[in-house]
Design brief:
The chain is α/β, with parallel strands linked by helices. It is 40% helix and 12% strand. It has a seven-stranded mixed beta sheet, with helices on both faces.
Length: 300
């Protein structure tokens, strides 16, 4: 299926009511057929829902869509983008580990590193994201993760994902990319060599300033490492927010096309102004074979 088709057609299984629009499963918990059914669910011997902090059909629809659109194996949704970042760090890092982090990161990500990772014995080094040749000297024996934003928030700096991936593979480092500004419509970091993708779905995924949300996309093995933290610490996405975000994905392609065309018109207008000395067009490393909007971004 094409990107837009996936965004529209991946839905929770239709109920006996034959609804056109997928329903919101606004429930805190779920019932069991009998005691044995409950035991099997709690023992992970059967698939099903127990409690919405663990899993919820509406949230699962959003997770499934995001995994498909990012070309990942699985996804887990969170209450906010920062919850997704924190859950990733808390699940994949331990005291004594070291993380390489781009200097161009969101302010709250910086505060998590400074105020919490340090306190828990997780070291971090800020690297010059615009000088990748300098990264080599910053790698330590205990370096576990390279964390970058591309485009960065708010400076919109661009990092070569393929080159960063090669660097991580050389040093056996997990490569984590915040992809919320590009969205999976313009960039799919997993196909370019990243291991984990993080989104603040509050941004372009919703696109209309209505709800908060986050999501982590990766291989099943990595998502399985993060799930216990989500289950027990509880930074879960609400069913209502998940429903809004899932519906928002249906118009993501149209909205990003318009963002791109508007940005190009503004840039071209600025180039025509004599008082403007230079207009810088960032290069966004998109996937091969993408359509017009993504080609325009690449050309820009």
């Amino acid at each position: 299926m094409h990107f837009e088709t996936k965004a529209i057609r991946i839905q929770t299984e239709r109920s006996q009511h034959h609804e056109h629009s997928t329903p919101i499963y606004a429930t805190s918990s779920f019932v069991f057929d009998d005691a044995e059914h409950m035991r099997a669910l709690f023992a992970n011997e059967a698939e099903g829902n127990i409690y919405s902090r663990f899993t919820n059909p509406t949230v699962r629809e959003f997770e499934t869509k995001m995994a498909e659109l990012e070309e990942g194996e699985d996804a887990i949704a969170t209450a906010t983008g920062m919850a997704a970042i924190f859950a990733t760090f808390a699940s994949l890092l331990s005291s004594g580990d070291h993380i390489l982090m781009s200097r161009a990161v969101f302010g709250s990500t910086y505060r998590v590193a400074e105020d919490y990772l340090n306190k828990w014995g997780i070291q971090h080094t800020y690297i010059d994201h615009l000088n990748m040749d300098s990264w080599e000297s910053e790698v330590c024996k205990n370096t576990k993760i390279l964390y970058i934003e591309t485009p960065s928030n708010p400076g919109l700096d661009i990092i070569d994902i393929r080159k960063a991936s090669d660097f991580c593979k050389t040093h056996n480092i997990l490569f984590v990319v915040d992809n919320c500004f590009a969205t999976p419509y313009l960039q799919q970091p997993l196909t370019l060599g990243a291991d984990v993708i993080i989104h603040s779905a509050t941004k372009y995924i919703d696109g209309q300033g209505r709800v908060l949300g986050g999501v982590i996309v990766s291989r099943k093995k990595i998502i399985e490492q993060i799930y216990p933290f989500m289950k027990n610490a509880g930074p879960s996405l609400s069913p209502f927010n998940a429903w809004v975000l899932s519906k928002s994905l249906e118009t993501l392609a149209i909205r990003m096309d318009r963002h791109c065309s508007n940005a190009m018109l503004i840039a071209q207008w600025l180039e025509s102004r004599p008082e403007v000395l230079k207009v810088k067009y960032p290069f966004l490393p998109t996937n091969d074979g993408f359509d017009v909007a993504r080609s325009q971004m690449k050309a820009g």
